[in-house]
Amino acid sequence: DGQVRSGVQFDSTNQRIQFSTATNERLRIGTDGQLGIGGANYGTAGQVLQSNGSGAIVSWANPVTPHAFTIMDSQYFTSSQTILAFNSDTSKDRTFGVTIDRTNERLQPTVAGVYHVLGFLDYSHANPGSSTFTLRLSRNAVSWQFMRRLLNYGGSMTDSMSVQAYIYFNGSSDYVDMRASHNAGGNATMNSASTISMHRVGS
Question: Using an 8 Å Cβ cutoff, are 46 and 40 in contact?
């Protein structure tokens, strides 16, 4: 019937190569080496090929790097290093390629690579006096990076601090959590404005 059902066709007029299956053009390579999907669909600069599963043709998509973001819970922390808990509200979670583990209060990437991890702590204390507050990122329960905040304040106060690090994760067993401690006596309170986030920056 003259139809190209499956095969490779060279279009000598337009100087391009077309790949077809089931009588439909699936991919083409243009004269400048550009790749078209289903015809002259070349995408835009910076886009990548995305699989849409076993039953659909590939498509152009904007690249998404593995990442995670979640808000923290309202929680006491003391002079001992306390693993800070995630809020049970998942509506503000953002994640791709990273597991937000609320059972163990950790972020666990499923894609290996170097990640930028950022922890933000909003906290309060009834009367810290002259004291030190410490915020820490721990990889696999071992301290990786910490930040100290020195205070000299009488009376109730609210303050904030942050800590960040570039950390390699193996994409399977490695994880990160956020911990806080202080020497002001009594309990300090982490407020729910606190957050932890991470995104992959390289291999």
Answer: no
Cα separation, 167 vs 171, in Å, equals 12
In angstroms, rounded to a whole number, what is the distance separating the alpha carbons of residues 158 and 40? 58
Question: How is 38-97 classified by DSSP, letter by letter?
Answer: SSS----TT-EEE---TTS--EEE-----EEEEEBPPEEE-SS-EEPPBPS--TT-EEES
Q: Contact, 200 vs 66, CB < 8 A?
A: yes
105: helix, strand or coil: coil
Residue carrying structure tokens 């942050």: 162
Place of tokens 């015809």: 39
CA 151-106-99 angle, to 5 degrees, is 140
- The pTM assigned to this predicted structure is 0.76
Spell 140-150 as b/e; 16+ CB within 10 A means b: eeeeebbbebe
pLDDT in tens, the chain (203 residues): 566 567 888 888 888 888 888 888 888 898 888 998 888 898 888 888 888 888 888 888 887 899 999 999 999 999 999 999 999 999 999 999 999 999 999 999 999 999 999 999 999 999 999 999 999 999 999 999 999 999 999 999 999 999 999 999 999 999 999 999 999 999 999 999 999 999 999 98
Beta bridge pairs of residue 163: 119
Residue 48: how many CA atoms within 13 Å on its side-chain side? 7
